[in-house]
Write a structure and sequence with these properties.
The structure is a single chain. By secondary structure, the protein is mainly β. About 10% of the residues lie in helices and about 50% in strands. The strands form 3 sheets. Strands 1, 2, 3, 6, 7, 12, 13, 15, 16 and 17 form a 10-stranded mixed β-sheet that branches. Strands 5-4-8-9 form a 4-stranded antiparallel β-sheet, with no helix packed on it. It has a 3-stranded antiparallel β-sheet with strand order 10-11-14.
Length: about 240
């Protein structure tokens, strides 16, 4: 069981949801890329959905190496990039990226599409929602194991779950990431993991994550989707 858990790091944040998503997003996609000489084009596609706000944010960066040994550089798609059929505005700064943020209901399938000349790309990333979650009956104890359950589909290949615990007042955040097993519908928490939480009242929400990688028309496509659940308040003894 322990091999499924990443180390629990204690991080001080004032607004954990909006800051922490930056750590969950594109850096994790970029860390998976190959050396620049190994490919000529890549796409990094990211989507995050906040259930409590009913809002999503999608971002895409397209890159191309302009020579055999050249570094990848962000490029534009002549006809733009679409997320689920909606054209994404281009954002210029250090290079260019495409970004769309809107209130919306949730859909499990996130499809990014664009063209390079005659080459059309369509990159779907599927991520089921978690509509609610709970632990066993009674209060959580740092002295005994417990089980996390959720309403929603079981975990799929490439998925993980991050638990974000925020202490009363929001001054302390304890993230715990679990690399799931396909088909998993519950997560057993050993007492040693719960002992990372100080006694008191904690706010908890889950982040369901999925990473995918594909190749189309000679380009390598990286996708990362994240679903942030609504929060719950739990007492830890």
């Amino acid at each position: 069981m322990d091999r499924l858990w990443s180390e629990a790091n204690i991080i001080v944040y004032r607004s954990m949801k909006y800051i922490f998503f930056l750590a969950l997003g594109f850096p994790l996609i970029s860390a998976c890329t190959d050396t620049p000489s190994a490919r000529k084009r890549t796409a990094e596609c990211y989507v995050r959905y906040l259930a409590s706000e009913g809002q999503f944010r999608a971002e895409v960066t397209l890159r191309e190496a302009r020579g055999p040994q050249a570094e990848l550089e962000a490029i534009e798609a002549p006809e733009g990039v679409r997320y689920n059929g909606t054209l994404m505005p281009a954002v210029y700064g250090k290079g260019v990226r495409y970004q769309l943020e809107q209130p919306a209901g949730y859909h499990n399938r996130h499809t990014f599409s664009w063209k390079y000349g005659e080459q059309a790309f369509s990159f779907p990333v599927d991520l089921p929602a978690i509509t609610s979650f709970s632990f066993g009956p009674g209060r959580l104890s740092r002295q005994r194991p417990d089980t996390l359950r959720w309403n929603g589909a079981p975990l799929e290949q490439g998925e993980s779950i991050v638990l974000l615990w925020e202490s009363t007042g929001g001054s302390l955040t304890v993230p715990m990431e679990i690399s799931g097993i396909p088909g998993q519908k519950t997560i057993e928490f050993p007492a040693a993991k719960l002992a990372a939480l100080a006694p008191g009242t904690w706010t908890l929400y889950l982040v369901r994550k999925k990473r995918v990688k594909a190749e189309q028309n000679g380009a390598i496509l990286y996708g990362l989707a994240e679903y942030f659940t609504a929060s719950d308040t739990l007492k830890v003894e």
